[in-house]
Specification:
237 residues, GMP Synthetase, Chain A, domain 3, 2 domains, 10 helices, MIP18-like, FSCA_dom_sf
Length: 237
């Protein structure tokens, strides 16, 4: 694998925090510049006014993941055409926190924001997996009683394995102790009586994220005169 492909394979791990989709799939990565062992990642967002804290999270994650490549010496991030490009580019690349780069903002701590979006992504990924399991013959009781090990051992289709992997990836970030596979983001059990209401709430999170992703793609395409994404790739509601 050449250097550019290695960089893009790491960029596949960088997600828009609000949309829970890779920047590479959203079209947010404009290009990369590789000079020997130094890498510059140039990215763009749908509007000039996209939230600086969202952008900063993306910039930090770009730096983090690309720096994990063994041959990379230095990583630079460049956000194009944004109201806070200078602060984000200089601050993130130099290792400053968001609050250091934007001291005038009252909501300068990104940890709580990251946590909020982790929970939303948890709901969205979980709802997709539950919906798949229901469509493939499992009852709500069977789903709610599944252990993590049993979920791992289920003979799933390619689609099912992908949904399982993405959900468990998000669940692991919560450092869960409960051995049940399907729990709340707080690692609490879900009752059969509360299952339908819980699933409706999770579906709402998933639908909201998918709508926002579709909307952001459209804005990006209009802003940079990009070809329209194939609507058939959107998840059916």
């Amino acid at each position: 694998m050449n250097k550019e492909k290695q960089v893009y394979s790491m960029l596949d791990k960088v997600y828009d925090p609000e949309l829970d989709q890779p920047l590479t799939e959203l079209g947010f990565i404009d290009h990369t510049v590789i000079k020997e062992n130094d890498v510059e990642v140039v990215f763009r967002l749908p509007t000039y006014w996209c939230s600086p804290n969202f952008a900063y999270i993306m910039a930090e994650d770009i730096l983090k993941f690309v720096a994990e490549i063994d041959w990379v010496n230095e990583v630079k991030v460049t956000l194009l055409d944004h109201c806070a490009s200078d602060e984000i580019n200089q601050g993130a690349t130099s290792g400053k926190s968001f609050s250091e780069s934007f001291s005038s903002l009252s909501d300068g701590d990104l940890d709580e924001l990251r946590k909020t979006f982790q929970i939303k992504a948890f709901y969205a990924r979980q709802e997709k997996l539950i919906r798949y399991l229901l469509q493939n013959g499992m009852s709500k009781k069977e789903i709610l009683n599944l252990s993590i090990q049993e979920l791992y051992e289920l003979p799933l289709s390619v689609e099912g394995k992908l949904l399982r992997g993405k959900y468990l990836e998000k669940k692991k970030t919560s450092n869960y102790l409960n051995q049940l596979a399907i729990t709340t983001p707080e690692d609490k059990e879900i009752t059969e009586e509360g299952f339908a209401d819980y699933l409706r709430g999770a579906k709402g999170s998933r639908m909201n994220m998918e709508f926002n992703a579709h909307y952001c793609r459209g804005l990006l395409e209009a802003r940079y005169n990009l070809p329209s994404a194939d609507e058939s790739t959107l998840t059916k509601i």
